[in-house]
Amino acid sequence: MAKDTKERILTAALEMFSQKGYDGTNIRELTSSLGLVKSALYRHFGSKEEIWNALLDEMIAYYGARFGSPERLPPVPDSPEELVALTMGLVDFTIHDEKVVMTRKLLTIEQFRDDRARDLATKHFLTGLRDMFTPLFAGMMDKGLLRRDDPGMLAFAYTAPISALIHLCDREPEKTDEAMAQIEAFSHHFLETYKA
Amino acid sequence: MAKDTKERILTAALEMFSQKGYDGTNIRELTSSLGLVKSALYRHFGSKEEIWNALLDEMIAYYGARFGSPERLPPVPDSPEELVALTMGLVDFTIHDEKVVMTRKLLTIEQFRDDRARDLATKHFLTGLRDMFTPLFAGMMDKGLLRRDDPGMLAFAYTAPISALIHLCDREPEKTDEAMAQIEAFSHHFLETYKA
DNA sequence: GCAAAAAGTGACCGCTCGTTCTCCTGTATT
DNA sequence: AATACAGGAGAACGAGCGGTCACTTTTTGC
User: Fold this and answer.
1) Does B62 share its domain with B76?
2) Are B192 and B113 in the same domain?
3) Closest-CA residue in chain B for A113?
4) Do residue A141 and residue A62 come from a single domain?
5) Residues B56, B101: one domain?
6) pLDDT digits (tens, 9 = 90+) for A99-158
7) Cβ contact (<8 Å) for B113 and A160?
8) Residues in chain A closer than 8 A to B153 (CB atoms)
9) Which of A23, A125, A172 sits opposite B23 (nearest CB)?
10) How many whole angstroms separate alpha carbon B44 and alpha carbon A140?
11) Which of the residues A38, A74, B2, B163 has the least number of beta carbons within 10 Å of its own beta carbon?
């Protein structure tokens, strides 16, 4: 219960910041949730803001490693059903993975207070998914699974509504099942609309 | 400089809360921006939280008056161009009206801290626009301007991407022109896709 | 024109915040 | 066994917070 304290602090900070915001979180509560006394925290971080910055570093690095690199792209689906399955798998992960949910909530809450959070928020909420699906849709057009169209526009039209429903799940978790069903229905509708 | 102090406090509170969040706002700064001393505020509101609740009451009432009633619906367009024009008019208003922008930012920031903010956020960000465009699209289908389809699904597919770009403008105002152009392009693409 | 009520002032209170300081303890190194 | 050191404990700090109070000024109603 010593060496990994720094990481445990970051984990607890992500949880508290995402629930109460940076300003709403206090060091006493944060450390006592780890069975520590507040002064012990200052052996690992120089200040509250240093925790915030370390957390952002981690989130940026995690996002880059997981979604940033082109080689991490999923394979181009061979059928419409495969795209639906791929979508639902991604959505299921992103909605149920605690760390990802907390990251999204934190970015939502703090996007107007910190420039780096702002930039990462735009990636998470808008450009990230779009840039991921653009080459996918281009590939599906090449395979004759989708009608010829602007792949970037299609990716935007596809991912933005899904992203809106993911936000709904963050906001009202009790509607998760309903939202998942809506996403699946939307995915089918989209494919029906744009089929070759 | 006396009777309207209560309203001036609410206006200043909306501005500060939307920028720094509820926790990040302090009464001294809020009142001094109005040329008052903090104790004067307590003639009008019993506590900081009472300001917050009054603000939410106002936002809920404003939303209900402006978007909540069915008779406030815009007329069904007579042509695709008219829908684009209607959309761009709405977007232009919602992006440039200071009070609306601040309300949206505030709801974004505080949606996880307050249940009423959470509910209003869902209306602002998801269901409100969708419910507004559903009868519009149904009407356009009746007029033969759109192919027969599920109007609610179309409204969702239309408004969610637009909403995502409105959020982008809130987050990165310097991208407003770009976002407006994207919305217009998306609107045209949507109409081309779903034309009868 | 005057009394009463409303609005504004400035000093002050208790509390909590982030942070610091000194001391203690367990562990690893030589 | 002695030493060094990292990690934690606990008291204390100054500052800033939301909120109160007694008092003065302004506005209002008769």
Assistant:
1) no
2) yes
3) B20
4) no
5) no
6) 999 999 999 999 999 999 999 999 999 999 999 999 999 999 999 999 999 999 999 999
7) no
8) 185-186, 189
9) A23
10) 62
11) B2
Q: b/e string for A48-87 if b means 16 or more Cβ within 10 A? A: beebbebbbebbbeebeeeeeeeeeeeebbeebeebbebb
CB of B105 within 8 Å of a chain A CB? The answer is yes
**CA of A50, C1' of C28: distance in angstroms:** 29
User: In which band, very low, low, confident or very high, does the pLDDT at A3 lie, cut at 50, 70 and 90?
Assistant: low
Cut 0.90: pTM above it: yes
Q: Which residue, counting CA atoms, is nearest to the C1' of nucleotide D27?
A: B2
pLDDT per position as a tens digit, A18-55: 999 999 999 999 999 999 999 999 999 999 999 999 99
Q: How confident is the model at residue A2 (pLDDT cuts 50, 70, 90)?
A: low
Q: How many CB pairs under 8 A join A and B?
A: 98
CA at B39, C1' at C13: how many angstroms apart? 14
pLDDT at A84 over 50: yes
Q: What is the mean pLDDT of chain B?
A: 96
Is the CB of B160 less than 8 angstroms away from the CB of A156? no
Domain containing A131 equals: 70-196
What are residue B195's DSSP bridge partners? B146
- B191: amino acid identity, one letter: L
8-state DSSP, B174: G
Provide the domain count of chain A: 2
Which protein residue's Cα is closest to nucleotide D9 at C1'? A37
Provide the 8-state DSSP code for B195: B
Other CB atoms closer than 10 Å to residue B104's CB: what's the count?
23
Residues B105 and B182 in one domain: yes
Same domain, A53 and A86: no
